[in-house]
Design goal:
The protein has 142 residues and is mainly α. Helix content is 83%, strand content 0%. The longest helix has 32 residues.
C-alpha cells in the first residue's frame, strides 16, 4: 500500500471521530442552554475535559497510521488525489462545525455567551484540522 493512503486514512478517522465527539460536546452545551444556565468556564470545564479525553482516544489510531505512513515513505505516486481527499474531509467537517455553531447561537435567548460558543467552535476546528494538516505536509515532504 502506498504511504499516502495511510495519511488519508489517518485524516478520515481523525476528522470524523473528532467531529462525532464535538457533536456530543455541543449537544451537552445545548442541554445547558435549554436548562437556562449561563455558559461560564465552570459549567463548561467538565464537558471540556470529557471532550478532550474523547479526542485523545480518537487520535490514537490516526497517530499510529501517521507513523506507518512516515515509515513507508517515499511516496511513489502523485500526492494530489490524497491531498484533495484530505482537504475534502476537513472542509466537510468545517461546514458541519459551523452549522452546529449557528444552531447553538440561535438556541440562546440571551446572546451573552456567544463568545464562549465561538471559542468552543475554534477549539473544534483546530482539533479537527491537526491530523489533516500533518498529513498534507507529509504528502509533500517526500
Amino acid at each position: 500500500m502506498d504511504a499516502s493512503w495511510f495519511f488519508v486514512l489517518a485524516s478520515a478517522i481523525a476528522v470524523y471521530g473528532i467531529l462525532f465527539s464535538f457533536r456530543g460536546f455541543i449537544r451537552e452545551v445545548h442541554k445547558l442552554i435549554e436548562k437556562g444556565e449561563e455558559l461560564s468556564t465552570d459549567n463548561i470545564r467538565n464537558l471540556q475535559s470529557s471532550f478532550f479525553i474523547k479526542v485523545a482516544m480518537v487520535e490514537a489510531i490516526p497517530i499510529i497510521l501517521l507513523v506507518l505512513g512516515f515509515m513507508n515513505t517515499p511516496v511513489e505516486s502523485n500526492p494530489l488525489v490524497p491531498a484533495i481527499l484530505i482537504g475534502a474531509f476537513y472542509v466537510s467537517a468545517l461546514i458541519q462545525i459551523m452549522v452546529l455553531k449557528q444552531e447553538t447561537i440561535q438556541l440562546q435567548e440571551n446572546k451573552s455567551s456567544t463568545s464562549v460558543i465561538q471559542t468552543l467552535t475554534m477549539i473544534g476546528l483546530t482539533l479537527t484540522g491537526s491530523i489533516p494538516l500533518i498529513s498534507i505536509i507529509a504528502l509533500y515532504m517526500s
